[in-house]
Specification:
Pfam families: ParcG (PF10274). GO terms for molecular function: Hsp70 protein binding; Hsp90 protein binding. This is Parkin coregulated gene protein. The protein is of the alpha+beta class. 45% of the residues lie in helices and 14% in strands. The strands form 2 sheets. It has a two-stranded antiparallel ribbon with strand order 1-2. The protein has a two-stranded antiparallel sheet with strand order 3-4. Strand 1 and strand 2 form a beta hairpin. Helix 2 runs parallel beside helix 4. The chain is globular. About 5% of the residues have low confidence.
Length: 228
């Protein structure tokens, strides 16, 4: 409880009024780290309609995608953005198919990947903006694979840093501190703070001469992994 003074202005003069027992309420929580549920993805809708040439296969190493066509013959402009749209998914089998489908297509895409970069930015941004730890970690690993997937791909991402790096700056210090305990998230590579640092370093390595200054503009505390 506190006493709060307010000013009342009327007809050219000011009078002060004291409100006894007034409760001063602080600003509302910004909720910057709060998860933001995503809407049903186009990827899920099309998968349920059977419009992807994929099936689930089991072997001694676990689950994998059985492709019904040669990946290298696929239309990357059509399919790759749809798989990236599925990054927001957290439920099985959608999350698995989207994540593994992206990695498979990046492994076999070669020169087909670079022209599709502008179509991938909105799905990437949407995934990061969920603030969901699982989704963000998956997206960081995909981004690391993406920048190394083909010539000039890393440089093509630099103009879009202003769209995708604000969330990096927000979560960059989200490292779990368990003292002497074992952080199992590190074993599984699900420590978002470390993944962000790894991804920024890859952005710098593969992004060309303008990468560092553009990273530094959006993430002021980032230190070069090349110059240092």
């Amino acid at each position: 409880m506190s006493t709060k003074k307010t000013e009342i202005k009327a007809e050219g003069f000011t009078t002060r009024a004291t409100l006894k027992n007034a409760v001063v309420v602080g600003p509302p929580a910004a909720g910057a780290f709060r998860e933001r549920p995503s809407k049903p993805t186009t990827f899920r809708k099309l998968y349920e309609r059977g419009e992807f040439p994929i099936a689930l296969s089991h072997d001694t190493k676990g689950n994998r995608i059985a492709w019904k066509v040669d990946i290298e013959t696929m239309d990357y402009h059509h399919y790759l953005p749809l798989f990236f749209d599925g990054l927001c998914e957290t439920a099985h089998p959608y999350e698995f198919f989207a994540r593994q489908g992206i990695h498979d297509m990046l492994d076999h895409g070669g020169s087909k990947i670079l022209p599709v970069i502008p179509q991938l930015i909105i799905p990437i941004k949407n995934a990061l903006n969920t603030r969901n730890n699982q989704v963000m970690c998956t997206t960081m690993k995909v981004l690391q694979h993406l920048v190394a997937s083909g010539e000039k791909v890393g440089e093509a991402l630099v103009p879009y840093f202003r769209q995708i790096l604000p969330v990096f700056n927000l979560f960059k210090n989200k490292n779990k501190n368990l003292g002497d305990g074992i952080d199992y998230s590190q074993r599984k590579r699900e420590n978002i703070g470390e993944l962000i640092q790894e991804t920024l370093q890859m952005f710098e390595r593969y992004g060309g001469e303008d990468a560092f200054i553009n990273i530094k503009y959006m993430v002021p505390t980032y230190e070069s992994c090349i110059k240092n």
